[in-house]
């Protein structure tokens, strides 16, 4: 596609790019040419929508019994692809191990969180050396010995997958509720433990899918259950000792596209039941002292209006986008919670992202020009604002763990592309940041070896897209080096200029690492998000491609010397950009990629589809949405042309992006593309959307990705 960027290189630059292209031609493609890649059979599957006849010969890879996967042909194909992955990566296994050991050496094996006081107790978690999972501890604030309250390693013993989703202590400090998933399906089992004797209670609630909130008397809790389509359309109250089948239903959501969740107010006196989709919210309040009381509706849903609330004494605080795209803050009385009064007006420059109430002040989190801001504000004087200062010009910062209502200091998390994760306490009276912890790297880290910068690159429609870059000092900007480009670009989720020790394995080998803050995220405000969704969705893809071209123009890499990766919706991005401009990329990795967009959005029986229509559009009822999605859906736009080396991953139990999306994408690419570049699919047969669990297993998958990219770029050393 035509770019607004005009490439004007000197003869010297042209020669350098030609040399880089020659080197690229010599890049390894297939590891073992004697082993044939798997071939997925093509089976006729005609269908039509809006008068358009279509054919999907790999539709059969969706097991009809999903979410159970029992089809022998499906399992045989996935296992064949896994075997092919292992064969092609076999000679690179020593490099995977080497890079894994590098990454492992950068983590502190006996790492622990900074202890934090919550009521009468101080809580923290830690890893033992060699352990995959955390242990959770507490001790009394007045002193005494530490108490191990939960050992994830014991719960995970003998299991291929384990994820602790929730751990919540009752108000009286005696009981613990914890929910975990042990197959990647994100259907959690909720358990209870009496911490005074260290034994589990007989109560077990299967299939939870929400936050969990205790009642004020510590005798029960509020939670949501996943329905048959993996949607939380309900909220229940379970009293300990009762049969969970007799739990009291507090709320049932009638809209198929809405999901329900629950939170607790800052003063812990109100339970907040929130229902909504990507663009619309409706909230109810019930007293924590009586969760079964009649709920108070804060304000009825209005399509396109998002709001969140907290409660202080008899006043409701509301963060909403009702009259400004970048949100405002309003207040209302509990007696008339729908009558909102302005507290902080919306701002074109200052995007408000969160609101946190404390006893003597409240905190507004947001971004100005894409940089995180933390404002401490006075309840009585709206003009009294304290900004928390940060030492760098580009960074990521936000409130950390602050469980108590009455505090004299705030826990804050901070990092940048060159500064490891840092935990601060901000002392309110002294207005100073106290460093509590800096991420340790036992193998050593010298920040002075690296440089970071932030560029603004013009997209084809003239919009300036921010790009954050990390590289070794002395990195030549003459097109001779390689660059890795990462982005997400969906759901209003910003990609901050954060720190990752794992990136160093590529950067130390000569890569620059760049994050493109493309539209679809909310990096530059809520409008930035709106400009990358629905009928403007292709802006996200174009931003990424144009950022890559702009980086080439500035000499950070040459065509074919840029690699890229993305996960989930970021995997959709990878599929779209390799269809649009495959010549730019030397290797691409797409993790659990949302690449079969049209078919997924046409299937309302799938877990997430109805709730996703406000993000992508509803192609069932809207012909324009159908046409647009069909025009960019990666699976539907594979062409007979050359593609770069690619690695796709999936999870058999993934309820978010189903396993067949990457499987179908790879099957169609194998049958269609014209090159001999390597194409791999790895499906985790016992995991879900997040890949393998356990810190070392996750690290090994990171090492596999880095090895694949370095291998294909001829930069393993």
Explained architecture:
The chain is an alpha+beta fold and about 725 residues long. The protein has 13 helices and 38 strands. The strands form nine sheets. The protein has an eight-stranded mixed beta sheet with strand order 31-32-34-33-35-36-37-38, sandwiched between helices. Strands 3-4-5-6 form a four-stranded antiparallel beta sheet. A four-stranded antiparallel beta sheet has the order 7-8-9-10, with no helix packed on it. A hairpin with a 2-residue loop joins β1 and β2. α3 (about 95-105) packs across α13 and α7 (about 540-555) packs across α8 (about 570-580). The longest helix has 18 residues, at about 70-90. The chain is globular, with a radius of gyration of 26 Å. The model is unreliable at about 1-25 (pLDDT under 50).
* Quaternary class: single chain
Shape: globular
Helix content: 10-25%
- Whole-angstrom Rg: 26 Å
Parts with pLDDT < 50 across at least 5 consecutive residues: 1-27
Q: How many angstroms separate the termini?
A: 36 Å
**Major sheet: order of its strands?**
31-32-34-33-35-36-37-38
* Structure classification: alpha+beta
Largest β sheet strand count, sense and barrel closure:
8 strands, mixed
What's the pLDDT, averaged over the residues? Answer: 93
Give a topology summary.
Blueprint: H1 11-25, E1 46-49, E2 52-55, H2 72-89, H3 93-105, E3 116-118, E4 121-126, E5 135-140, E6 147-151, H4 152-156, E7 163-169, E8 175-181, E9 188-194, E10 199-208, E11 213-214, E12 220-223, E13 234-239, E14 248-252, E15 259-264, E16 270-276, E17 281-287, E18 296-299, E19 307-312, E20 315-320, E21 328-333, E22 341-344, E23 350-357, E24 362-368, E25 371-377, E26 385-387, E27 396-399, E28 409-415, E29 422-427, E30 432-438, E31 450-458, E32 464-472, E33 482-486, H5 504-507, E34 511-516, H6 526-530, H7 538-553, E35 562-567, H8 569-580, E36 585-591, H9 597-601, H10 609-616, H11 623-632, E37 646-651, H12 660-672, E38 679-684, H13 695-712
Parallel strand pairs: 33-34, 33-35, 35-36, 36-37, 37-38
Antiparallel strand pairs: 1-2, 3-4, 4-5, 5-6, 7-8, 8-9, 9-10, 11-12, 12-13, 13-14, 15-16, 16-17, 17-18, 19-20, 20-21, 21-22, 23-24, 24-25, 25-26, 27-28, 28-29, 29-30, 31-32, 32-34
Helix pairs in contact: 3-13, 7-8
């Amino acid at each position: 596609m035509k770019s607004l960027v005009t490439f004007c290189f000197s003869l010297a630059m042209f020669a350098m790019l030609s040399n880089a292209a020659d080197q690229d031609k010599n890049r390894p493609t297939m590891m073992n040419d004697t082993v044939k890649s798997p071939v997925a059979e093509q089976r006729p599957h005609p269908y039509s929508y809006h008068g358009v006849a279509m054919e999907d010969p790999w539709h059969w890879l969706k097991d009809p019994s999903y979410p159970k996967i029992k089809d022998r042909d499906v399992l045989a194909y996935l296992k064949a692809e896994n075997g092919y992955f292992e064969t092609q990566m076999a000679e690179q296994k020593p490099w995977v191990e080497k890079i894994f050991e590098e990454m492992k050496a950068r983590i502190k094996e006996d790492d622990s969180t900074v202890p934090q006081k919550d009521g009468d107790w101080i809580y923290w978690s830690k890893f033992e050396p060699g352990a995959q999972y955390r242990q959770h501890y507490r001790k009394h604030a007045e002193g005494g010995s530490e108490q191990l309250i939960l050992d994830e390693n014991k719960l995970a013993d003998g299991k291929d997958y384990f994820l602790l989703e929730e751990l919540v202590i009752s108000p009286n400090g005696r009981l613990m509720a914890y929910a975990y998933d042990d197959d990647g399906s994100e259907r959690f089992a909720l358990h209870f433990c009496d911490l005074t004797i260290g034994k589990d209670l007989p109560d077990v609630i299967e299939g939870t899918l929400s936050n969990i909130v205790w009642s004020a008397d510590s005798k029960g809790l509020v939670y949501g259950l996943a329905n048959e389509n993996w949607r939380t359309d309900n909220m229940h109250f379970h009293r300990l000792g009762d049969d969970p089948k007799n739990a009291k239903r507090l709320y049932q959501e009638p809209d198929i596209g809405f999901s329900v969740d629950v939170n607790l107010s800052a003063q812990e006196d109100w339970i907040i039941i929130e229902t909504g989709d990507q663009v619309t919210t409706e909230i109810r309040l019930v007293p924590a002292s009586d969760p079964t009381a009649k709920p108070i509706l804060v304000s009825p849903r209005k399509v396109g209006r998002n709001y969140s609330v907290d409660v202080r004494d008899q006043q409701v605080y509301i963060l909403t986008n009702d009259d400004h795209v970048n949100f405002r803050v309003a207040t209302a009385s509990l007696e008339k919670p729908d009558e909102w009064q302005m507290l902080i007006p919306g701002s074109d420059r200052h995007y408000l992202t969160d609101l946190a109430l404390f006893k003597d002040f409240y905190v507004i989190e947001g971004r100005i020009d894409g940089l995180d801001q933390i404002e401490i504000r006075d309840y009585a004087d709206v003009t009294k604002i304290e900004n928390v200062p940060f030492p760098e010009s580009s960074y990521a910062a936000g409130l950390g763990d602050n469980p108590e209502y009455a505090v004299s200091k705030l826990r804050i998390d901070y990092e940048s592309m060159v500064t490891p994760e840092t935990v601060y306490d901000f002392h309110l009276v002294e207005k100073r940041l106290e460093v509590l912890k800096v991420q340790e790297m036992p193998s050593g880290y010298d920040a002075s070896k690296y440089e970071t910068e932030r560029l603004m690159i013009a997209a084809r429609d003239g919009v300036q897209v921010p790009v954050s870059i990390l590289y070794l000092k002395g990195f030549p900007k003459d097109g001779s080096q390689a660059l890795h480009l990462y982005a997400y670009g969906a759901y209003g989720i910003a990609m901050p200029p954060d720190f990752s020790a794992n990136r160093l394995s590529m950067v130390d080998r000569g890569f620059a690492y760049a994050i493109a803050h493309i539209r679809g995220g909310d990096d530059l405000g809520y409008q930035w998000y709106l400009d990358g969704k629905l009928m403007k969705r292709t802006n996200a893809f174009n931003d990424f491609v144009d950022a890559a071209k702009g980086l080439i123009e500035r000499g950070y890499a040459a065509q074919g010397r840029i690699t890229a990766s993305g996960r989930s919706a970021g995997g959709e991005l990878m599929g779209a950009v390799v269809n649009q401009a495959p010549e730019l990329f030397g290797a691409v990795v797409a993790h659990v990629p949302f690449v079969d967009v049209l078919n997924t959005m046409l299937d309302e029986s799938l877990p997430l589809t109805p709730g996703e229509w406000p993000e992508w559009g509803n192609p069932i009822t809207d012909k324009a949405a159908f046409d647009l999605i069909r025009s960019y859906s990666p699976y539907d736009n594979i062409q007979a042309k050359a593609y770069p080396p690619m690695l796709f991953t999936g999870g058999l139990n993934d309820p978010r992006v189903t396993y067949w999306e990457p499987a179908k994408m790879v099957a169609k690419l194998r049958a269609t593309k014209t090159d001999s570049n390597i194409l791999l699919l790895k499906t985790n047969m016992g995991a879900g959307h997040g890949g393998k669990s356990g810190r070392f297993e996750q690290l090994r998958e990171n090492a596999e990705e880095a090895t694949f990219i370095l291998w294909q770029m001829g930069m393993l050393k």
